[in-house]
Design goal:
Rossmann fold, two-stranded parallel sheet, 2 domains, 270 residues, seven-stranded mixed sheet, alpha/beta, 9 strands
């Protein structure tokens, strides 16, 4: 197994899968809190963080492969953004391997995003390149260092702070780490991502384990659409909304997220 991961604590297993704009460092507050009573495994998905790059990747298969490698028959899983999509796809592919899921600002395979999603990226992020450089980038040209740094800042402002806030809404250490993770992801060559088929969007009723949906009210509206789809499409799902919070609640609001996760995981032990 070539994926990078941290393995901390002992007890019932909890897997932590990061957002697409981040890496396993985003769980810096959750690992110590959860590992007091659980074995916590925070993984870097392929092409992120310290895990290797590949021209093609299948995130949910990688996660199941990591569980096989570590001899884990069943676990709870917590996923943020694309990491939420990963754990849902893995749970649909192998439902007996997961006893509960926590979906934080989670993506959803097969979900049709509104056109405003691409417009937002154009207006807030990639439009900053200008028409010529944007055309060159879409044609395969690399970003310059200055362009990559600017994109990382704009992307973090739009997503991690949220479209109606700016960096002043975030603690300086949260902003600094979020920009650093975004820049690392931007500088990584793109790869082809293979998602679950058929996708999760039409199969949420198949998820029969306990599910917690957690979202920040300041997140991008199109991402909040997916949280609502989970909350209404999964039988018995519980939806916790955190006010004045963007796309990475585990970093921005660790106390609230830790309390919600500990209560959710504690239900499994009672």
């Amino acid at each position: 197994m070539d994926l990078a991961y941290d393995d901390v604590g002992s007890g019932p297993v909890v897997l932590l899968v990061h957002a697409g704009i981040a890496d396993r460092r985003m769980w810096r507050h959750q690992v110590p809190a959860l590992s007091e009573r659980h074995r916590v495994i925070a993984v870097d998905e392929r092409c992120h963080g310290d895990s290797p790059w590949a021209a093609e990747r299948t995130p949910h298969a990688d996660l199941l492969g990591l569980m096989d490698h570590l001899g884990i028959d069943q676990a709870a899983a917590v996923g943020c953004s694309n990491g939420g999509r990963t754990i849902v796809d893995a749970a649909l592919a192998a439902p007996s391997r997961f006893d509960r899921l926590a979906l934080i600002a989670a993506g959803l395979s097969g979900f049709a995003m509104r056109p405003s999603w691409l417009e937002l990226w154009q207006d807030r992020v990639y439009g900053s390149l200008g028409p010529e450089r944007l055309a060159a980038y879409r044609g395969g040209a690399d970003l310059t260092d200055a362009e990559a740094e600017r994109i990382a800042v704009l992307q973090t402002r739009m997503l991690v702070a949220g479209p109606d806030r700016d960096e002043t809404a975030l603690a300086p250490d949260v902003w600094e780490l979020a920009v650093d993770m975004a820049l690392r992801e931007i500088r990584t060559p793109e790869s082809d991502e293979v998602l679950l088929e058929p996708p999760a969007v039409g199969r949420l009723h198949e998820l029969t384990m306990p599910v917690l949906v957690l979202s920040g009210d300041a997140d991008v509206p199109e991402i909040l659409d997916m949280s609502r789809a989970y909350a209404t499409g999964i039988p018995g799902a519980r939806h916790v909304r955190i006010p004045a919070t963007g796309h990475l609640p585990p970093l921005e609001r660790p106390d609230e997220v830790n309390a919600a996760l500990l209560a959710f995981l504690g239900d499994a032990e009672s």
